[in-house]
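Much of our argument rests on the idea that a fold can be written as discrete symbols. Part of our work consisted of pairing the sequence of a single chain with a tokenised description of its backbone. We regard such an encoding as a compact summary of how the chain folds. The amino acid sequence and the backbone structure tokens for this protein are reproduced below.
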Amino acid sequence: MKKQKKIKKNVFTFNAIFLEEPDGGYSVSIPALPGCFSQGDTFEGAVKNIKEAIELYLENESEEKKLLRNRPKKEFMAPVELYA
């Protein structure tokens, strides 16, 4: 019996910030990947488009971008209330 080769795949998880646009649709950015933005007419479309944008970003990533992406940091979101 032949032993099967295991295919290794890297799994990347990025935080995405989605903004509902006033004229409809969504814009989305990836804070860990400076300059990685996309948009979509629907939320699902924006998710699909940002995945493609991340793939392209990582394919064309320069050494400078790698350094920015790999710097140690803790990233989180929290609500901030302002009473005016």
Q: What stands out?
A: Residues 28 and 75 are 17 Å apart (CA to CA).
